[in-house]
Design brief:
125 residues; mainly alpha; two-stranded antiparallel sheet; 3% strand
Length: 125
């Protein structure tokens, strides 16, 4: 797959794709006879993983650490598992916080929609 095709498929910019390469999160990318990058299925699977982890707000630093461990093979399995579990715990805490904020916003919106001005004023916000 070409850079353009990859960017279209995953809705990312050339800059983002090159950045992930520069940070050694994907690659090295093979090139064709015209010296254009050609992304393999393996590259795409790695990119999908990175994009998913970035949606979860996992840092580039953590991703680099994980990928370095992954590339060292089976002997790093436990460290990788621990890293992923830690990130999952962090994500679950963020989701809990976001759900609490969502519930409070929903409550406030309902007060406004039901025109309950006295309750809104009692809260001073």
């Amino acid at each position: 797959m070409t850079i353009k095709e990859v960017c279209l498929k995953y809705n990312i910019s050339n800059y983002t794709l090159h950045y992930y390469e520069k940070e050694d999160l994907i690659g090295p990318i093979k090139k064709n006879k015209s010296d254009h990058r050609i992304y393999s299925e393996t590259d795409l699977k790695r990119l999908e993983f990175i994009l998913c982890m970035r949606k979860a707000k996992i840092s580039i630093k953590t991703l680099k650490e994980y990928i370095l461990l992954y590339e060292k093979g089976e002997k790093t399995k436990e460290k990788r598992l621990e890293l992923l579990k830690n990130e999952l715990n962090t994500l679950e805490a963020k989701i809990k916080d976001m759900n609490e904020a969502k519930n409070y916003l929903t409550y406030k919106i309902k007060l406004y929609e039901q025109d309950k001005l006295e309750e809104i004023l009692k809260e001073n916000v």
